[in-house]
């Protein structure tokens, strides 16, 4: 059976323009106060905690969540605008973007009422950082090969094993982690995995930092030794977490953060090209701009589907695949085009070069994080009934 793809054309409603102005004004103030510098991709780390709380005060974390948990009951399209502006400005969102994007919605859907009441309002205030514990040394794309296990003990579970590539685990308050609670069955190799809410301060957890090419040290290998998790920290169905993972990934894969990570290379190139660029530079800039515009329309369309309560898994995978390929190729393309631009008297060229150097080093990871290109294409093919 072939399944039709739907990317309904959608324009952001007028209320989003007002919100965009508010977010821009807020970010401009933060930049003016020296909280972060959009020209320096990794600036702002030291201020990320306080920044998260100020974003929380504005009501921009958990915007789509129910009011009874502190959320704003606003639309996915409004949330889209906030995320987009934060990405373009390269604001230090690391404390809250995981909980806002996927852990919070997962808890709303599958967490116990007590967990929702105790965790979500604090997350909305920007007080909690979450990380994602899926990948393991022997299992990345193939999550159903997860070996880290949770075994029954009185009043809960004991976790043992290790997770790897866990972004921000060293500073996270909580992880939503996938652990094996039973072996797979013959009929269903996806059976036997359970999601747990893990308080990262629980004894028995050790985070070992792993350096990245960019010089950042956000990655971790997280070791678990007899880590006690109370029963009410099981998220969803015991042995049935595979049913939950797909909706979580639709949230993870389609947002503007999936094509704007190196956007600064295009913005910087446009700046150094000046008002009357060489015809080849103008053509290159035009092409890149048209491409990012198209990606954006597709991504907004997915946000519209999430708004309608749909699970656009295939469409989200397409946005992620095309988006990460685009943002991965962008720094190299920007470098080629910049060679056609005459040197200037000011330091703008040097600043562009510094920025580009970071983006070139960040580019290889983009088609791996959040699902590799090859794996996404498998999902797309299956969704289209081709495999
Ligand atoms: C910046 C970054 C941040 C990350 N953050 C997190 C995080 O916070 N939490 C977390 O759990 N994980 C995280 N990851 C891990 C990431 O999700 C995995 O690395 C990714 O899923 C790939 O797994 P792997 O590295 O084990 O590679 P493998 O799965 O071993 O893949 C190796 C190669 O084989 C290909 N391949 C694998 N399976 C198939 C298939 N079925 N068909 C065709 N080709 C295939 C892949 O495309 C890849 O090229 C992060 C990764 C990066 C780069």
What do you see in this structure?
This protein has 387 residues and is α+β, with helices and mostly antiparallel strands. The chain folds into three domains: 14-128, Acyl-CoA dehydrogenase/oxidase, N-terminal domain (Butyryl-Coa Dehydrogenase, subunit A, domain 1, Orthogonal Bundle); 132-240, Beta Barrel (Butyryl-CoA Dehydrogenase, subunit A, domain 2); 253-383, Up-down Bundle (Butyryl-CoA Dehydrogenase, subunit A, domain 3). It is 45% helix and 13% strand. The chain is built from eleven helices and eight strands. The protein has helices spanning 14-32, 48-57, 76-89, 97-110, 113-124, 242-253, 263-273, 279-307, 313-338, 348-362, 373-383, and strands at 130-133, 149-153, 156-164, 174-180, 193-199, 205-210, 219-230, 234-235. Strands 1-4-5-8 form a four-stranded mixed β-sheet, with helices on one face. A four-stranded antiparallel β-sheet has the order 2-3-7-6, with no helix packed on it. The longest helix is centred in the last third of the chain and has 29 residues, at 279-307. The termini are close together. The chain binds flavin-adenine dinucleotide. Flavin-adenine dinucleotide binds next to strand 1 and helix 11.
């Amino acid at each position: 059976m072939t399944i039709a793809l739907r990317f309904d054309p959608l324009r952001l409603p007028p209320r989003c323009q007002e919100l965009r102005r508010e977010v821009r004004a807020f970010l401009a103030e933060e930049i003016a106060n020296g909280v972060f510098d959009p020209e320096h991709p990794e600036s702002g780390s030291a201020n990320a905690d306080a920044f998260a709380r100020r974003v929380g005060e504005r009501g921009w974390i958990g915007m789509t969540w129910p009011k009874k948990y502190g959320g704003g009951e606003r639309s996915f399209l409004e949330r889209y605008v906030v995320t987009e502006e934060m990405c373009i400005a390269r604001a230090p969102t690391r404390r809250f973007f995981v909980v806002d994007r996927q852990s919070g919605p997962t808890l709303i859907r599958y967490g116990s009422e007590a967990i929702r009441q105790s965790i979500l309002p604090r997350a909305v205030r920007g007080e909690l950082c979450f990380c994602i514990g899926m990948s393991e040394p022997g299992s990345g794309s193939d999550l159903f090969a997860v070996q880290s296990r949770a075994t029954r003990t009185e009043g809960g579970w004991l976790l043992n094993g290790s997770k790897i590539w866990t972004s921000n685990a060293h500073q996270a308050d909580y992880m939503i982690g996938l652990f094996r609670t039973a072996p797979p069955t013959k009929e269903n190799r996806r059976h036997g995995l359970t999601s747990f809410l893990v308080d990262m301060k629980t004894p028995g957890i050790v985070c070992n930092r792993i350096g990245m090419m960019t010089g950042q040290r956000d990655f971790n290998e997280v070791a678990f030794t007899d880590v006690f998790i109370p029963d009410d920290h099981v998220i969803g169905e015991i042995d049935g977490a595979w049913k939950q993972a797909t909706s979580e990934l639709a949230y993870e894969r389609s947002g503007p953060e999936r094509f704007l990570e190196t956007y600064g290379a295009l913005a910087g190139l446009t700046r150094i090209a000046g008002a009357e660029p060489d015809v080849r530079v103008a053509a290159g800039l035009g092409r890149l701009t048209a491409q990012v515009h198209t990606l954006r329309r597709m991504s907004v369309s997915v946000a519209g589907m999430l708004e309608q309560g749909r699970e656009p898994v295939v469409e989200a995978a397409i946005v992620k695949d095309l988006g990460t390929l685009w943002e991965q190729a962008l720094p190299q393309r920007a470098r080629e085009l910049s060679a056609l631009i005459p040197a200037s008297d000011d330091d703008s060229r040097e600043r562009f070069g510094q920025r580009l150097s970071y983006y070139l080093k960040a580019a290889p990871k983009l088609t791996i994080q959040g699902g590799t290109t090859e794996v996404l294409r498998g999902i797309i093919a299956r969704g289209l009934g081709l495999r």
